[in-house]
Amino acid sequence: MKKVTEEKVAVMIPRELHDKIKEKIAGTSFTSVEEYVVLKLENEFPDETEYTEEEEQIIRERLRRLGYIE
Amino acid sequence: MPRPHGGRLVDRFTPQSRKAEAAEEASGLPVVEVSRELRLDLENIASGLYSPLTGPMTQNDYLTVLAKGRLSDDLPWTVPILLDVLDEAAEGFGEGDTVTLMCEGEPFAKLTVEEKYGWDKEVHSERVYKTTDQAHPGVTKTYSRNDTLVGGPIEVFDEYPGKFPRYRLKPRETRFLFKEKGWRTVAGFQTRNAPHIGHEYVQKTALSFVDGLFINPLIGKKKPGDFTDEVIIESYEALFQNYFLRNSATLVTLEMEMRYAGPKEAIHHAVIRKNYGCSHFIVGRDHAGVGDYYGPFEAQEIFEDYPDLGVMPIFFRNFFHCRKCGGPQNEKICPHGEEDHVNYKGRVMRELLMKGLRPDETQMRPEVVDAILRHSKPFVE
Predict the structure, then answer these.
(1) What is the number of domains present in chain A?
(2) Can B330 be counted among the known catalytic residues?
(3) What is the pTM of this model?
């Protein structure tokens, strides 16, 4: 599991929700409610996959040739 | 779009500039011959579809997958990816050596041997397939494999072009495609069938609340009676041309052997679609099942054990044509009784098609039927 090492800020969530998450992640690889919430939010606001300009050009051309994009 | 499984998209293909050199290096190494199905698994590792795997599993990962349905770092993983080799071949190399992988006489990859180990096929069958019954195709396959396994990172220098190169994309390409199309949320749909109306209804229902639909038929070895790969592709082409908005759905093949591992395979399929860039994955009734080995919704229930999967399952239960409603319905929305319902039964449709007969238009689109019946042998023999 990816370790979160960036600077952090506190966000409050309802206790009831916290307890539900805690119950849901019991026995899984999540070691804390925070880890679970961070993963969910990271999926909502993900890092963009990075492509070099050359790779972008190659992929775009291939997708165009195959008819996936115009 | 979700991050790749494990956080990073694996790429184990040799860069173009080094391919000739890598092939030359491979020529003097001990050789391991692999089947076409195994090659597909290895290519899927190389392209990042099986991220975070960088090669066939070593023993620690393999055993934790069997015991916990997770890799040794606790990442969800349910179907072991193994390379089995003939004992005589295994005697020719040791841990730390590099071997050349060959398929049908052609070298295509190198593997650095991290570990050689044995396996218990009975335990494997029980854990993966939930049965040791050798009538189960996955169990039969397990028992037919060699006794020695080899794990370690691979590098593929000669890429397999695919059975349908037109529809073969790598995860880096599908992720780019989704971005280009402006799809933030994408539902992946796994199939090994020509589509009937029930499938189309599921797909369009999912599409109503995500940006894009990713139809991803599985191409590869299947059991007798399944539709051939060509029929699956052509029937989906017919469906796309006639019944889908141009910018709402896309068709990409996945070349991989069906394992018929039911619930375990459903998780495996979800991980693959996550690596393609899907935010959602559609799981229907008896996903990846065979015979009566799994309960009809076991492949949905298993997702409860994986809240950390990183891809959202969309569950569908039973669909049917309702004569009174005049279209596809499900038990949550249709008020009419069973006497008005006609289930979408793939088996019944296949039996009709085998005789050259056309399923009713409430069951299968006429254009799809045409695409199937253009083939004299639409089923795997």
Answers:
(1) 1
(2) no
(3) 0.89
